[in-house]
């Protein structure tokens, strides 16, 4: 992949939001999930895009938050997916908005 970033979004509803995100994206993406963990694959050409490769989102529900890790094919791909995740999560967590997204980027591999 090459470009990755992680965040723990503070919320007491991590499992609920994980399941809502996964159910939403399962309509047109490859998604595997349980109430505690999820994995979403964003194809390189999703929605007409032309990224160098696929990207993945890994989710883990915690009592105090939702851990999210994005692995993308380029810095631009990563930035786009961060925005998409934040917009979707804010929509599902409208009672808690604004949520905090203290992203921790990893050095490119």
From TrEMBL:
Q: Which domain of life is it from?
A: Bacteria
> What is the protein named?
DUF2218 domain-containing protein
Organism for this UniProt entry:
Azospirillum isscasi
């Amino acid at each position: 992949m090459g470009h990755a970033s992680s965040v723990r979004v503070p919320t007491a509803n991590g499992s609920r939001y994980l399941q809502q995100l996964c159910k939403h994206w399962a309509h047109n993406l490859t998604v595997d999930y349980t109430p505690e963990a999820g994995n979403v694959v964003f194809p390189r050409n999703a929605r007409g895009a032309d990224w160098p490769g696929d990207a993945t989102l890994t989710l883990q529900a915690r009592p105090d938050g939702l851990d999210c890790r994005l692995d993308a094919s380029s810095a631009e791909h990563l930035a786009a997916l961060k925005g998409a995740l934040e917009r979707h999560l804010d929509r599902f967590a409208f009672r808690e908005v604004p949520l905090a997204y203290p992203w921790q980027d990893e050095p490119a591999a």
